């Protein structure tokens, strides 16, 4: 939760005094705040999304789940394409 917390803090620190960050003298501060937000985005949310499952689940299970997910998206896109083509020919 530390990464999410600091991402929120830095986003509010960028958003609330936005006029302050748009001035030419304060651009380096804006870059630093944005860099810290990006660091904390990779610090916890990306680690828990990508690194932890790679360590916990076997490669065979991960590849099966990726295949099921890809199949679902492709099936949905085929249904949507068919629906759009039928609607366009009416």
TrEMBL record:
Top-rank lineage group of the source organism: Eukaryota
GO CC field: membrane
TM stretches of this protein: 31-52
Listed Pfam families: Sugar_tr
Signal peptide: 1-15
Compartments it resides in: Membrane
Family, per entry: Belongs to the major facilitator superfamily. Phosphate:H(+) symporter (TC 2.A.1.9) family.
Name of this protein: Uncharacterized protein
Species assigned in the record: Salvia splendens (Scarlet sage)
Taxonomic placement: Eukaryota, Viridiplantae, Streptophyta, Embryophyta, Tracheophyta
